[in-house]
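Hi everyone,

Forwarding the result from last night's run.
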Amino acid sequence: MRISELSSATGVAVPSIKYYLREGLLPPGELTSANQASYDDTHAQRLRLIRALLDVGGLPIATAKEVLAAIDTQGLPLTWVFGVAQHAISDASLYEPVEGETNGTRAVRDLVAERGWHVSPENPGMHGAARVLDTYRGVGHPELAHIWEGYADAAELIATADLASVARQTDVEAMSETVVVGTILGDALVASLRRMAQEHVSNQQFPAPTKD
């Protein structure tokens, strides 16, 4: 298909497609003449993935390029791909290493040890969790620090579901793409489900008074 047909098939504007080609996010098509190229269904699928990472995942172009490169690199261990995906959605001051020993860092380290989790010190979640726990106390809400055991239980269930989805794939390339899509878009899904569940539970525990 021509680039105009690729645009029609995916809903991505031609200028955007050309931009993704220049930036290396989208592989080039097969040249049919000096200024014409042919594209196929793999390009359409790649475009949909690019738009998902940008629009739903909220990644900047440069980060999306790094993530897609991890998918494309053959033989890359899945643990490395997980790391790339995690850092892609953790590019914020929240996930920068916490300086010194704090209540939050001690609590995170203790939880990892108690649960027997195999987590590297460089994992952005270690820093993010510590910073959140310290901030709970800093803003005068230490009671929130007691709920994170439940969060850890939920996180382990979510991670188990994530890996089950990866295991359903039949080849390493498909596994890598599932890791990236599941990790990056999964954050948005978990946050959305939490919002829904909060409304449900709050209606159960703190129902609005009925009018007489």
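Residues 60-205 form one domain.

Cheers,
N.
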